[in-house]
Design brief:
The complex is a heterodimer of chains A (242) and B (106).
Chain A: H1 2-47, H2 52-62, H3 65-76, H4 81-92, H5 94-102, H6 111-118, H7 123-135, H8 140-164, H9 179-191, H10 195-215, H11 220-241
Chain B: H1 2-27, H2 34-57, E1 58-59, E2 62-63, H3 70-85, H4 88-105
Antiparallel strand pairs in B: 1-2
Classes of the chains: A mainly alpha (242), B mainly alpha (106).
């Protein structure tokens, strides 16, 4: 009995390791985009007179490109703390949508696990993770591999940028600044299953541009997503009736 | 100054974590009504499209449908490779290579 138990356990831990490795592997496109972007953040933050420790704390605890760039920019411009926090609250409120959309897929996980995994949620890890869930349910090992690898790249890149400073010159010419956009294009194409999803995508894309032009970036993702998803539900209902 | 920066960092961090964890904890414990689930089902497509278009079509917050807009130019082969191959790796390579080429050309 004990022998069988042990064999089973070994098999289980082998599968868990495989799932973790799959998560790490699927994080590699994100790493390609995060590392140079985080380095750029590190360089910029040091140029705005933040210490290496502050750079590290931001990437470890805030872990959000848009929020960190805005914070550094506003700190450099001498903005009041409350206005910095308010601006970032607006931009990052889209995390609520990502988290909500992930929730039904993770209902088997306990609260401790969810609280741990939640911190790894970004636009990019969300996009890769939800793409995998389209095919089959995922376990905590896959998500841990994906989330930890991406976070490590973000933290590592910022520290590297913060230490090397401007020694690197312009990293943009390597074309890596386009990596994350290319990744989103690929994942979006994979998500298009039928005509309604195409309509939702086109509408969200258009609204995002219009909102950005009219009231500036910040509101664009959340407004475009809420409206386009609502239209998607309405079109679906209307199609069923006709 | 040191202390102010620390407060700002911790404030943003706390806010971000709340945004990330609250819906996960609340919505994974209740049965979401069917219409809500369908709505959430459209969120991935909408979020990704909304993230892409300003990067591709705008430069400095202004519409830029010009040949100077490198992101727009790089997005064309990237999109075609994505549709044709449906492979994340090939799409990523196409995107980064296109951008590197555009940067090399000036």
């Amino acid at each position: 009995m004990i022998m069988i138990d042990r064999a089973q356990r070994r098999e289980q831990s082998g599968m868990n390791r495989k799932e973790f490795q799959l998560g790490v592997k699927e994080a590699l496109p994100i790493v390609l985009g995060y590392f140079p972007l985080a380095m750029a953040f590190g360089v910029l933050a040091r140029a705005s007179h933040l210490s290496l420790w502050q750079v590290l704390a931001m990437s470890l605890l805030i872990y959000s490109g848009s929020a960190q760039f805005i914070a550094v920019g506003m700190l450099g411009a001498g903005a009041a703390p409350a206005s910095i926090i308010a601006a970032i609250m607006l931009v990052n409120s889209r995390l609520i949508l990502l988290s909500a959309s992930l929730a039904p897929h993770l209902s088997r996980f306990n609260a401790t696990l969810l609280s741990f995994l939640a911190h790894g949620l970004t636009d990019e890890t969300y996009a890769v993770g939800i793409n995998r869930m389209r095919e089959k349910p995922v376990n905590q090992w896959y998500l841990s591999g994906l989330f930890l690898t991406a976070h490590l790249a973000w933290v590592g890149g910022s520290v590297a940028g913060g230490m090397l400073g401007t020694l690197l010159g312009d990293t943009q010419r390597w074309g890596l600044n386009f990596a994350l956009t290319a990744m989103f294009i690929s994942l979006l194409i994979l998500q298009l299953k039928n005509n309604i999803t195409i309509v939702v995508a086109c509408l969200a894309g258009l609204l995002s541009v219009v909102v950005t032009c009219m009231i500036g970036s910040g509101w664009n993702i959340i407004v475009a997503t809420v409206l386009a998803a609502t239209v998607g539900v309405l079109v679906e209902k209307w199609k069923k009736q006709s | 100054m040191e202390k102010t920066i620390l407060i700002i960092i911790l404030g943003i961090a706390a806010l971000n974590y709340l945004f990330r964890v609250t819906p996960l904890l609340l919505l994974s414990r209740i049965k979401i009504p069917a219409v809500g689930a369908r709505w959430l089902g459209y969120v991935p497509v909408a979020v990704m499209a909304a993230l892409i278009t300003p990067e591709v079509f705008l430069v400095g917050g202004e519409p830029a449908l010009t040949l100077d807009n490198k992101n727009l130019l790089a997005a064309i082969p990237t999109f075609l490779v994505a549709v044709k191959t449906r492979s994340l790796l090939f799409t990523l390579l196409a995107g980064v290579a296109s951008m590197a080429l555009l940067n090399a050309l000036g």
